[in-house]
Write a structure and sequence with these properties.
Elements lengths: L2 E5 L7 H11 L1 E2 L2 E3 L9 H8 L7 H6 L3 H21 L4 E5 L8 H11 L5 E8 L2 H14 L13 H12 L4 E5 L10 H9 L18 H13 L9 H13 L10 H8 L3 H11 L17 H4 L4 H15 L16 H25 L5 H18 L8 H17 L1
Parallel strand pairs: 1-4, 1-5, 3-4, 5-6
Antiparallel strand pairs: 2-3
Helix pairs in contact: 2-4, 4-16, 5-7, 9-15, 10-14, 10-15, 14-15
């Protein structure tokens, strides 16, 4: 029997840790983790293969990828994934993409239709994060992806994420687990996931937590940049440029970023029906006790109180990550720092990061699969559009072509 396990997130439930550690192992007794390209995650690929409007997803939108290019990418990725699955001798194949939880139900149907001929059984597994913790993490993720908003925040959207999987794959084939690390084996999401899908991890495997959270000070700096800076941008290198800003921010140490309970209740609106549906489906409460100590963020004004010491630490982490020296004259002198000055500092650092990207590109022409494949598709499309249309053969030429076709068929 060949079984597929599809891990659908949800976001901010240790998905990166699961993906990073399983891709390192690659495969084990009776199982194989499948990822296309350089990244442990299949987010980009799943959006391209099964998303209804993948050109609106930030990774493709920021790179300016068109619908035409994505249609070609969709077909190529599907062929590649099907080929990898057919070649595998493992009984259990694992696919992981938190993006799948928000792909439209029509895309989920396409996913099922694509996988059914390749497997005897398809199982879904997802982790459910309580609403307050999810909203804090999701706000940070949006900041990292270029958004800046203190308006009405999207809630966890439990029913929208998970009910379609119950209906399309059958509820009996969908396992949902509350994201509650204290109840996991060794407090570890990776070991809990492996236990759920029947993977035996070697005792020697060390599980390191992959931290993707920003501290309060780092959130403040990034928010100031998103609000007052030049923007995320669109182009081949903008994601790399932003990564050279975000990675140093992730390395900063500081106050834990939290929203106040009053802010969460106001910003999210009424989530009671959605939470009730999820609690009934999950068979567990999603209630959270939110303790407050005065450091919580209640709005934009709280977040934009940025100290000079926070800017100094950002610069220190930026220098470590990028291997550059930031001129001391770039650091603001005021304390607290005016948000526009923080934005100017980050933009100057981004320009330095851009120069490092160009240096690396000139010395190492190879590129990750996603961007390389997109460039290949663009070259192919440009040649196709530039080539003149072939004229239909008529008269003697048509007869000669027909004769050659018969001869080739006979010889073949």
């Amino acid at each position: 029997m060949k079984r597929c396990w599809i891990h659908i997130g949800m976001p901010k439930t240790g998905t990166t840790s699961i993906q990073v550690h399983l891709v390192k192992l690659g495969q084990g007794e009776g199982w194989q983790y499948v990822a296309i390209g350089k990244s442990p995650s299949m987010n980009r690929e799943m959006h391209a293969m099964f998303g209804t409007r993948p050109e609106k997803w930030y990774w493709f939108e920021k790179r300016g990828v068109t619908k035409e290019e994505l249609e070609i990418l969709r077909q190529r990725l599907r062929k590649g994934l099907a080929r990898t699955i057919r070649r595998s001798q493992a009984e259990n194949i694992i696919l992981s993409s938190e993006a799948l939880s928000l792909i439209h139900k029509s895309g989920v149907r396409q996913l099922r239709e694509f996988l059914e001929p390749l497997f005897d059984e398809i199982r879904i597994i997802g982790y459910v994060r309580p609403p307050a913790g999810f909203m804090v993490s999701f706000f940070q993720q949006r900041l990292k992806n270029g958004a800046e908003s203190f308006g009405r925040m999207a809630g966890p959207q439990y029913r929208e994420r998970f009910e379609k999987y119950d209906k399309i794959f059958g509820r009996e084939n969908v396992t949902l687990r509350k994201f509650e690390p204290a109840t996991f084996p060794g407090g570890c999401i990776v070991r809990d996931f492996c236990e759920q899908v029947g993977i035996q991890l070697p005792d020697s495997v060390a599980i390191d937590r992959v931290n993707e959270s920003l501290c309060l000070e780092a959130c403040a700096i990034l928010y100031a940049y998103r609000k007052h800076g030049k923007g995320f941008g669109i182009g081949a290198d903008v994601i790399l440029e932003n990564s050279r800003i975000v990675r140093p921010l992730l390395a900063m140490k500081g106050t834990r970023f939290r929203f106040s309970r009053a802010f969460l209740d106001t910003a999210a609106g009424d989530l009671s029906d959605d939470i009730s549906w999820m609690e009934q489906r999950l068979g567990a409460t999603l209630h959270e006790t939110v303790s407050e100590d005065g450091s919580e963020v209640s709005g934009e004004a709280d977040l934009l109180l940025i100290s000079r010491s926070a800017c100094e630490e950002f610069v220190a982490r930026f220098e470590e990550y990028n291997g550059v020296k930031v001129p001391s004259t770039w650091l603001p002198t005021a304390d607290p720092v005016e948000p526009r000055q923080v934005s100017d500092l980050v933009e100057r650092c981004r320009e330095m990061g851009r120069e490092k990207i160009q240096e690396k590109r000139s010395s190492r022409p190879g590129k990750p699969l996603g961007s390389r494949l997109i460039r290949a598709i663009r070259r192919w499309l440009s040649r196709t559009k530039a080539a003149p249309a072939a004229k239909p053969k008529t008269g003697p030429a048509k007869k000669r072509a027909k004769k050659r076709g018969k001869k080739n068929k006979k010889n073949g």
